[in-house]
Please model this.
Amino acid sequence: ASPALASEVARLVALGTVDQAMDTLGRRGVQLNRKVISRLAASIAQSGLSYRDWVVQKTQAGARGQSAKGKRLVIACDGGRIGIRYRKSGRPRKSRRHGYDGHWKEPKVLVVYEVDEKGRKVKDGLCRYDATMRDADGLFVVLTALLGELGAQEAKEWIVVGDGAGWIWDRVAGLIEALSFDATKVTQVVDFYHASQRLNEIAAECKGWSASDRKKWVEQMKRLLREDRAEEIVDQAPILFKGRGSKKRRKLFTYFKERAGKMRYGTYRKKGVPLGSGAVESCVRRVVNLRLKGNGIFWNLETAEGVLHLRAQLLCGRWGPFHSDGIDPP
Model:
């Protein structure tokens, strides 16, 4: 297959199923069976993953780019969920197929994009997506390499946004150190809407409250968040929950106690810092859920890794550069 045909086949597989790709190609007069389409897409995916590994090696050796110089970068990570198949040992069935066990596994997704001084995403600005089936450490290896390739150490500011997941915040310091970035130029933000959801969970535990009481309390606590007074929310714990079973319910406030320093929403708004992680949550939906997640859908780990990488490059608008780099990694 020519590079152009292989690229188009991989693009169609990233967009939809192999059967859909086969139908689209057939309507264009290109007759390829499922095995050929799968093989071509896997080849392009493997080239892209090889290039990504090469970038990791280069950045670990100290190579740095310049694309992000002087820019405000938003960096966000999140996880999704897809089904993975694990082949059973033993003889195949009468159909000559091996059985498998299906389990849920969390793919990790990262987003890096550029914002202006008001915190709005820059149109046609720097934007990168990627996704992997690796664990949290593996994702941050990919993220570190990506930021190094962009020259993020030359950026004006980093804004790290995420939900309350500890696996994200525990690794931010290592990310800053790996790229020798000035920690005073890094703003860490817990997603305001996740914090609001936690307030609703706390209100739901107040069994004697009416719906209007819960709504009123949540709005009062949101006002405290907007005024940089997250610590005062923690002070509500001994007031709301007393006596039997209170210790378990007070743990709900740990979310705010441990992350209060990342909840200065009033200050963030004045500085043009995004308050939410909607960009990465949208990325999880578009890259993972709309292609790889569904009832009865189970993937091999290697295939899932390849399709995630293909789809991430396609949806962030970098298919051309990705294909020219990935088809023949140095």
